[in-house]
Amino acid sequence: MFIKNKSFVIKLLGCALIPVLTLAIVMNLRSSPSFEAVSGQSYGWKSEKWTLVNYFAEWCKPCLEELPELNELAEAGELRVFGISYDSLSDQEIIDLMKRYQIQFPVLKTSSLETLPISLPAVLPTTYILSPDGEIVDVLHGKVTIEGIESLLEKHQNKKS
């Protein structure tokens, strides 16, 4: 009799843990949202690398002027670089924009923006710097340069050490 009750208690505890584990998984997914680029590739905020997220628009001259710098940063591979169109564009419109301005880093789908912990900025261009933990550590308004980004990264990486 005792063994049957013990078995029942173990089964009951197992059943009780399923909702708790499900909740833990859901909370973890919410704390590390994923987003999708127009290429179809999915990403998460947390990464082994630092992340740069740049809001831009085609009608914003400083935004277009900084694209070569952002391309170079992305190509160097030391940090992840993502673009977000300030204007709500279809995936095809974003792809056309990327071709027109030779954007060589992933640009996020407009539909992915709802899950991002970054709000639409009031000023363009706006660039967010995120730590590998996915924490926003800096917000830059105006045109960025490679030297400026590298200097900021060095400052933040030294703080983490």
TrEMBL record:
Family matches, as PROSITE patterns: THIOREDOXIN_2
GO molecular function: antioxidant activity; oxidoreductase activity
InterPro entries listed in its UniProt record: AhpC/TSA, Thioredoxin-like_sf, Thioredoxin_domain, Thioredoxin_ResA/DsbE_sf
Lineage: superkingdom: Bacteria
SUPFAM superfamilies: Thioredoxin-like
Segments forming domain Thioredoxin: 26-158
Pfam families reported for this sequence: AhpC-TSA
Signal peptide from the UniProt entry: none
Protein name: Redoxin
